[in-house]
Amino acid sequence: MLQRSLVLTLALLLPLSAAAQRRPYFQQDVAYRIEARLDEGPDVLTGRARLTYVNRSPDTLDSLYLHQHLNAFRPNSAWARRELRDRNTRFQALGPEQHAFERFTAISVDGTAVRASYPGAPDSTVAVIPLPRRLGPGDSVVVTMDWQARLATLPRRQGRAGRHFDFAQWYPRIAVYDRTGWAYQALMPQGEFYGEFGRYDVTLDLAADQVIGHTGVVVEGDPGYAETSLGRGYEPGPAPSLGLLTGQAEAGRKRVRIYADSVHHFAWSADPRFVHDFARRQTLPESGAMTTRAGIHVFYLPTDTAWDDQVVLRRTFESLEWLERLFGPFPYPQITNLHRLESGGTEFPMLVMNGSASPTLITHELTHQYLHGILANNEWREGWMDEGFTSFVSNWWWSESASDTIWYGSMRTLERLERTDSSEVVDQPGVAFSSPRIYSAMTYSKASAVFRMLRAMVGDETMRGILRTYYERHRFTHVTGEDFQVVAEEKTGKDLDWFFDQWIRRTDRLDYGITDVSTRPTGSGGWRTTVTVLRLGQAWMPVTLRVGDVTVTLDSRERRQSTAVLTRQKPTEAVLDPAWVLIDMDRSNNRAAIP
Ligand SMILES: [Zn+2]
Fold first, then answer.
1. What is the pTM of this model?
2. Which terminal CB of the chain, N or C, has fewer other CB atoms within 10 Å?
3. Are strands 44-54 and 140-150 parallel, antiparallel or unpaired?
4. What's the 118 CA to ligand 1 centre distance in angstroms?
5. Cα 378 to Cα 478: distance, rounded to the nearest angstrom
6. Is 535 exposed, middle or buried (0-12, 13-18, 19+ CB in 10 A)?
7. Which residues of the chain carry a pLDDT beneath 50?
């Protein structure tokens, strides 16, 4: 249904960026069959997974790397130790009944028992499974993994409280093997995820009264909500038994089978109190043939007055409609937005877990369905390509539907950081930033402002064309900043190295200022104003100049440029970058009164 093979073939034929040309693009083939049982009380999930892994790379592999992300939320993890540096003991101090864990109880590779090793010990978020037989190009291997997992009582992305469970992570997740080799990293506060696209066929055994929101589509059983008959295109056939869940579900329990295709992660939440809202979406083209589009599911608690009356359902609907116009149709059969324990939000394929009903949060996390979910960049290596890009798109939506003031907070922060020379190179791994504050300012605020400058420079129509082409060409693949730059250069017909170099790969600073302005009557009733503008920083950008009611764009790279502007009325002031698009380290010299 998702035309996976077509997409891959297309990706192979397209021109590749400089680094990529060294090695052709490839993508591993991954399929999970999972049986899992959640026992409330001990709150332990017991799982068995059969992972079928096809090596589509040109390399021979002697091991598989997997992530056990839940092990971040416990004492002595890399995450907990990183937070100790900031005197934050929240995970280091969790007791034996409180912390999260994810531990293997048995592993076999093609029937041979093996043991995982942990190269980052005492951190155990990265596990290595040795392959008894080397896996050559085109070969496949079947790994069966038994494990137990528990969420932390302290919510951070994941979490549990009473009978509420946010299973953001819960199973051994295969790491990506891409052109750079195995991409694995201990889960850290700075930088999130990177996943291998695959098919998930999951059967959950849980208390009969639980209501679940999840990645994928229900194909068997009762998830606790109606409107489950949306599994079109998904006909996975009878569930292959792994032997963990045998016979029928016990009294008071149920089994739900969920299927997902072309997703790089599978997450779910459960709460017996969940209230469910649903929107079916259909279009009726002029031909008269009704097309069903992705349905929207929203889950919240009966006490969530900010979510009820279909408020969140409508916000999710409106944001998704806007995003589909920007990128293209949402390609999965459904999307779920649910109220998690923690504040803030986190993106998972086909699912967002949100801590509030805020419209900007909803749009941000939904935008991640495209930027990270479908266009799957490595979040810890190039966070700007998902968080910055997503912040740009969701702010674009907000400025169209509400107000442009959404940008002012970020722009003020950036002006201060640039003026004090505190910016750091945006294009670097999350863990390399000097602090969580700078990581956040560079990855979210600065990167989003850079995308906004690009949009202002090329114009809205071209920017939309760039986004559509980037999506059409790269969906369901692993993407990099270079992939985006190639599309942007193609659609503008311009070399943009200078732009990404100065803003993303270096920390060049920009400062335009008006040094001189004068005006005089033209003799035919109008006014001729001459403005001299200095370029004081290393960086260069086209800059708009507004004199009275006339706006012109200055695009000289000279340090000093003068321009004459004709107006009908006598202007009172000249203003550089009046829309505040440029990351300018000193805006105090952008405005000059005209005597
Ligand atoms: Zn985000």
1. 0.93
2. C
3. antiparallel
4. 29
5. 8
6. buried
7. 1-18, 20
